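Input (structure):
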């Protein structure tokens, strides 16, 4: 299985993409790239490295899909809003955020997945669903604020 992704580089080009403006040939060659990865973990490591080196505000993943023996197995649905992908792209310092970690723990708890004994003690007595909702709302709002500032920067 291969993981294929297309990425736009550059703040101006990202803005053009979200405003449904077409790229000229030069922008397509310079700013739009396609990458292929052998494993999902390889792709994720690439994203983490890009986020640390460049920052999420200077590139945008516009398309991802998995390919198995040259047949597309799964392509992201355009109509489905994956809020975690949005948060990951636009939340500042996503990989260093304690709220993201806590959200992950609470999600695992709601999904009846195993969490550590220390995490169990920490969240003991919490209304897990309500806490998760509040944390995810805060994360999504901050991510949206960063997204909005990318599209409509202050003068």
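Output (sequence):
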């Amino acid at each position: 299985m291969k993981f294929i992704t297309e990425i736009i580089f550059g703040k101006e080009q990202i803005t053009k993409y979200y405003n449904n403006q077409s790229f000229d040939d030069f922008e397509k060659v310079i700013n739009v790239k396609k990458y292929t990865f052998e494993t999902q973990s390889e792709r994720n490591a690439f994203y983490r490295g890009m986020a640390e080196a460049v920052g999420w505000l200077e590139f945008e993943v516009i398309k991802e899909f998995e390919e198995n023996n040259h047949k597309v197995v799964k392509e992201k649905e355009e109509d489905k809003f994956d809020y975690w992908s949005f948060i990951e792209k636009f939340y500042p310092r996503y990989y260093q955020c304690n709220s993201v970690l806590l959200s992950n723990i609470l999600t695992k708890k709601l999904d009846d997945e195993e969490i550590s004994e220390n995490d169990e003690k920490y969240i003991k007595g919490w209304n897990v669903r309500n806490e998760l909702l509040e944390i995810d709302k805060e994360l999504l709002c901050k991510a949206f604020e960063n997204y909005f500032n990318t599209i409509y920067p202050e003068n």
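Notes: The beta strands are 2-9, 32-37, 59-68, 71-75. The chain has two domains: 2-75, 83-151.
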